[in-house]
């Protein structure tokens, strides 16, 4: 057989996009599709109030902020998209590639990609965005109806960020199109982020309800994890427990609010143990630091350290009891008007005093807590609290005087999380303490007359956690 004959018999491949028959056929015969955007009650109103606050804080400024895009995971696959927190706070929208523009007088317009219809190539040829590939995609009217905000095609964005107003505030690095459009305009992304962070420190009632929902789902997920401890011990290990929490988070909300820490045994002292690939053994404590993120993207941040078989060892109980004492002192210090650092100082003071009483530190308490001491921080090198909200470490762009050097105000939502971490190879502690890590983390809301502990349904004492663990084990 000749080469020419072989070539003639080779099957030919045709691209549907180039075929008139395919293009004509795929463009017709489609019934209606439900593209309704469902949002919780109060979201649109809350977002409108947030925009009003931003416009009042930056009067006369034209502002543009983008939702962002999903980062590439590998080659032609992306991570799941999660919209920029500031953008969500201002809009309630989670549409990838969308941009909010606030005019100098505070009027808002949301610029989005309009849904491609069956007669457009993007409908069937765009594997990333086309409806034939990813399912129904809300259009401009759908978003406008849900969010009560004017929506325009993204193609009109260039005109919106140019014109009579000679300056614009945007955040670079989030949306390439917006970056390109405002490159020649005076911008101050740090100033915009800072203003938004400081506005977001005080949560309104709608936001607090989102956090309550996130915590309630997280408490449920903690129970799910404890009930699966026998399977983890049988061989599923930390991965099994992580999957258990993640399943509840994905069912009850958007997913996890951050990379879950599932640290058993010697992994518990590792502050950011997110590998979660170790075994779970009888006699271990499990340090579980995890939070459910709601579908509106508000996240809880909860930690409990509980015994794998329902009973602490004497050494584990000793460490846990000291951390519990520090937690109570820390919570007592969270009060309106108190310095933000006060609750962190109280936690560290109790821990330093306890470590000194155990004989682990041979210097005075005054030296330990002074600027040239701090030896106790070897066993708690991290902080003991932070804001929570749309980000697990919320409002980090705030100025120091509005955060760490500021005061506590009503409406703030905080995570309070003292702990002690004795690494297995730390020869400064007796052998029985090595490999023990204990953290207690509560989520709280500051009110003018009280402290609301959102995580109160999870016990924090050793006796309470033993009883809770055994009750969860009995579910199986």
Automatic annotation (TrEMBL):
Gene3D superfamilies: Creatinase/methionine aminopeptidase superfamily, Creatinase/prolidase N-terminal domain. Residues 45-179 form the Aminopeptidase P N-terminal domain. It comes from the Bacteria. One of its GO terms (molecular function) is metalloaminopeptidase activity. Keywords: Aminopeptidase, Hydrolase, Manganese, Metal-binding, Protease. It catalyses: Release of any N-terminal amino acid, including proline, that is linked to proline, even from a dipeptide or tripeptide. Its cofactor is Mn(2+). The keyword Phosphoprotein does not apply. Its EC number is 3.4.11.9. It holds the Pfam family AMP_N. GO terms for biological process: proteolysis. It is an enzyme of class 3 (hydrolase). The keyword Protease applies. One of its GO terms (cellular component) is cytosol. InterPro entries: Aminopep_P_N, Creatin/AminoP/Spt16_N, Creatinase/aminopeptidase-like, Pept_M24, X-Pro_dipept-like. Belongs to the peptidase M24B family. This is Xaa-Pro aminopeptidase. It comes from Kribbella solani.
């Amino acid at each position: 057989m000749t080469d020419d004959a072989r070539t003639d018999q080779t099957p030919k491949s045709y691209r549907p996009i180039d075929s008139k028959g395919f293009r004509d056929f795929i463009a017709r015969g489609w019934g209606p599709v439900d593209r309704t955007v469902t949002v919780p009650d109060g979201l649109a109103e809350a977002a409108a109030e947030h925009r009003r606050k931003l416009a009042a804080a930056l009067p006369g400024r034209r502002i543009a902020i983008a939702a962002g895009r999903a980062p590439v995971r590998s080659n032609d696959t992306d991570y799941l998209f999660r919209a920029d927190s500031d953008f969500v706070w201002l809009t309630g929208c989670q549409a990838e590639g969308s941009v909010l523009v606030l005019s100098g007088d505070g009027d808002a317009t949301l610029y989005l990609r309009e849904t491609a219809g069956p007669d457009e190539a993007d409908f069937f040829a765009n594997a990333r965005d086309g409806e034939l590939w990813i399912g129904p995609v809300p259009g401009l009217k759908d978003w406008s109806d849900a969010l009560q905000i004017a929506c325009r095609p993204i193609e009109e964005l260039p005109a919106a960020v140019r014109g009579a107003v000679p300056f614009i505030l945007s955040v670079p690095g989030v949306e390439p199109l917006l970056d390109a459009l405002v490159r020649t305009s005076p911008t101050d992304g740090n100033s915009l982020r800072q203003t938004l962070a400081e506005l977001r420190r005080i949560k309104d009632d709608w936001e607090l309800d989102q956090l309550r929902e996130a915590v309630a789902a997280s408490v449920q997920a903690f129970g799910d994890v404890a009930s699966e401890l026998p399977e983890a011990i049988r061989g599923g290990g930390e991965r099994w427990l992580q999957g258990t929490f993640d399943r509840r988070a994905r069912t009850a909300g958007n997913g996890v609010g951050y990379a879950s820490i599932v640290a058993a045994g010697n992994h518990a002292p590792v502050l950011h143990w997110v590998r979660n690939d170790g075994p779970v053994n009888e006699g271990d404590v499990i340090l579980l630091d995890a939070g459910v993120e709601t579908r509106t993207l508000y996240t809880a941040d909860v930690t409990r350290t509980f015994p794998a078989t329902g009973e602490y060892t004497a050494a584990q109980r000793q460490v846990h009891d000291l951390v519990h004492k520090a937690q109570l002192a820390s919570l007592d210090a969270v009060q309106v008007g108190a310095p933000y650092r006060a609750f962190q100082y109280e936690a560290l003071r109790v821990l330093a005093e306890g470590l000194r009483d155990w004989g682990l530190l041979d210097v005075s308490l005054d030296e330990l807590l002074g600027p040239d001491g701090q030896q106790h921080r070897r066993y708690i090198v991290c902080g003991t609290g932070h804001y929570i909200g749309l980000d697990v470490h919320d409002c980090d762009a705030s100025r120091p005087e509005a955060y760490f050097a500021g005061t506590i105000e009503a409406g703030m939502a905080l995570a309070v999380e003292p702990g002690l971490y004795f690494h297995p190879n730390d020869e400064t502690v007796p052998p029985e303490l090595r490999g023990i890590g204990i953290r207690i983390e509560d989520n709280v809301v500051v009110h003018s007359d009280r402290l609301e502990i959102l995580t109160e349904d999870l016990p924090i004492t050793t006796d309470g956690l033993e009883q809770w663990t055994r009750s969860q084990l009995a579910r199986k």
